[in-house]
Amino acid sequence: MAKLPEAREAEINVGDLLRLKRSERPSDQFWNEFDRELHQRMLQALVQKDPWYLQVLRGFSGRMLQSTAVVAAAVIAMVVVWPALQPTIVPVAVAVAQAPSVEVVSAPGEAGLAELWLAEVADLTAVADYHTDVISVDEASSDVKFVRDFGMESVQLASYDASTYSTDSAQARVSFASAGVASLVY
Amino acid sequence: MAITGTVSDTFAHAEEAPVSERDLDWSVVQRVQAGNVGAFDQLVQKYREHIFSVIYNMTSNREDASDLTQETFIKAFQAIARFKGKSSFFTWIYRIAINSTMTFLKKRSRRRYISYENINEEVSSSEIFERLTSKNRSEKGALIQELQEKLNDSLQKLSPKHRTVVVLHEIEGLSHGQIAEITKTSVGTVRSRLHYAKQQLQSYLKDYVG
Predict the structure, then answer these.
(1) Which of the ends of chain A has fewer CB neighbours closer than 10 A, N or C?
(2) Taking the domains of chain B in order of start, what are their residue ranges?
(3) Distance from C-alpha of B95 to C-alpha of B24, rounded to nearest angstrom
(4) How is chain A split into domains, by residue range?
(5) What is d(CA B88, CA B96) in angstroms, rounded to the nearest whole number?
(6) A12 in contact with B at a CB cutoff of 8 Å?
(7) How far apart are CA B65 and CA B115, in angstroms?
């Protein structure tokens, strides 16, 4: 059950007890002695020099620290900032070496196309040293009835035993490749 | 009857209306900085009893408290040229006192000498003491001595950090904000330490409270 206000007022708490300690006070005589001793010690402190390391530390923490900071900032500016502001001339080889590398990933079969392209480029410089108007076959092949009914720039013909092919198949293959290089493979 | 005045009675709270006190102290500090060494005595006379009280209640030894109070003022005197007035002189001198006492307590941790200050006669006629006497049915003189020993003993059982907060708040009457500024902690930390310390003291002094 809650206590009545009067009862609560009559209660003594920790704060009340601690406030009693305010009454623990030194006498006037104590303070006279205190002042005398303090003045003596202050006079000693006035005439007494600090050890050299304290003087150094104190000096360092004052103006020396400020000037050191300025010098340090200047040095950092010279070493770091100044070179960064200078225009740089980089040799090409170095630039290429420094350039980010691009990795080309080829799909399967692209390598063959690349070779073909290189061969065509090489062929551009080559002088055409052929012109075939008539495809001749071995005279011994009596069963050849080849009709030249197509126009083309070149025909590669792999000669083989004539008995193993027919003119029909040769015709069809050459017609298929009429726009360019025809390859007849038997 | 009021037993004694607190710091708050003498000096306005730092966060409430300390401007005039702070300015007054600052003008004295500037005079000392300008070479008028004698002006420092004004600051000594103004703060010595409060600084002594804090240190005495922290150490429970009047001789140590006397030495440390002198040490506090000498440190302040030696460093006053570097005092820029960013905090009040009040906060600054209290901080020096607390730090000096903390350092002393760390060194003294293994041995403890108790030496009490005389209790002012006013206490025997205070209302609280009258209630204590009637409650405990003891003779006044014996009760005063017993209670003084018990109070000092209980304070010494607290850690220095908790003791600092209790002494500054409950005995010196400083606000939470002032204590936070002096001890360089947050107001929340001060409140937390105070709450814990009072709980501890409640158990140590259970024969007298309630």
Answers:
(1) N
(2) 14-117
(3) 19
(4) 27-87, 130-184
(5) 13
(6) yes
(7) 10
Count CA atoms within 13 Å of residue A9 on its CB side: 4
B132 contacts in chain A (CB < 8 Å): 12
pLDDT > 90: percent of chain A: 8
The ipTM value here is 0.82
Q: In the CATH hierarchy, which fold is given to the domain comprising B14-117?
A: Rna Polymerase Sigma Factor; Chain: A (1.10.1740)
Interface of A with B in 25-44 (CB under 8 A): 25-27, 30-31, 34-35, 37-38, 41-42
Q: Which chain A residues contact residue B74 at CB under 8 A?
A: 38, 41-42, 45
More confident residue, B167 or A60: B167
Q: What is the pTM of this model?
A: 0.61
Res A67 pLDDT > 80? no
Partner residue facing A37 (CB), from B70, B166, B171: B70
Query: Which pLDDT band, with edges at 50, 70 and 90, does A129 fall under?
Result: low
Residue of A nearest to B207 (CA): A12
pLDDT, one tens digit per residue, over A15-40 is: 888 988 888 889 899 999 999 999 99
DSSP line for B16-50: TS-HHHHHHHHHHHHHHHTT-GGGHHHHHHHHHHH
Contact residues on chain B for A3, CB-CB shorter than 8 A: none
